[in-house]
Amino acid sequence: MEKIRVGVIGCGSIAQHRHLPEYGMNKRVEIVAVCDKNEERAVRVANEYGAKSYTDYKELIESGTVDAVSVCTPNYLHAEISIYALNQGLHVLCEKPMATSVEEAEEMIEAGKRSGKKLMIGHNQRFVSSHQKARELIKNGEIGRVYSFRTTFGHGGPAQWSVEGKESWFFKKEEAIIGAMGDLGVHKTDLLRYLLDEEFTEVGAFVEENAKDYGDTDDNAVCVLKTKSGIIGTLAASWAYMGKEDNSTIIYGEKAILRLEEDPTYSLIVQYANGEVVNYQLGKIQTNDEGGQRNTGVIDEFIHCIVEDVVSPVPGEEGLKSLSVVLAALKSSRTKKITEI
């Protein structure tokens, strides 16, 4: 089988700890190029993987040496680079959030349709075993009607793991556009849409810039969300959790409560209304904590959809729906009003 030739654009932490190692583990992939505006970093990473280094993403895309690219750049470049690559006939895996506006996201989707190439958004929480099991239990009626939920994704922020620390683009509004809500909140809007299998219609949010004095992006948010069928719950996204990372979700149903990634041993705990408790050990979720850089499944799914020519498991349309919830939350915080999605 011919290998898929891959280029990675942006050589920061997400590329070094997730994309590149996972491409390296996939037997159907050849890493041939990397790109970063920091030439020293690009050369170092390229040497590690036996690839060619670039500092200009257009040069990499136009080189004719790659079939697909990962876009791992600051948020404001996601749409620009993805559209350029798709227009040049390359498959694209873009980090989340896929874009910084609805208009950008729609342009990406249109570029994918025109090119006939795959566009996938890196929402890795869909591929976590406990989340997939929870979706199955909800879908088959095991917990009855869902009433409410509580989901959280918080840690100390990119300063702890970004290659540039406190100088990272994550803290610069002109490059990030969206801070913790784009970094963490969009993971949870996507997860909840995946678990509940329905769309959100309204959001009320408090989004603050109160945790980091070295940046001007949002870093601490709490949202109240409502789905089309009337399920209500809360979502927190924060770079202000200075202790242990929290990446947990609780689903409150008619017949049972699902506790996801809350317990250190059991990744899913089902507490039934009759008092019965079922514990599942399904493997740990990936994390930025020490020793937590596990295979997310995103790369394998991306390569699979290219090789088998099947629909991307997280296409641009899904990325846009999850992004739209975040954008509505930011609007709600600005206007101090409940916002329709």
UniProtKB/TrEMBL annotation:
Signal peptide: none annotated. Residues 4-123 form the Gfo/Idh/MocA-like oxidoreductase N-terminal domain. Residues 131-258 form the GFO/IDH/MocA-like oxidoreductase domain. Pfam families: GFO_IDH_MocA (PF01408), GFO_IDH_MocA_C3 (PF22725). SUPFAM superfamilies: Glyceraldehyde-3-phosphate dehydrogenase-like, C-terminal domain, NAD(P)-binding Rossmann-fold domains. PANTHER family: BILIVERDIN REDUCTASE A. This is Predicted dehydrogenase.
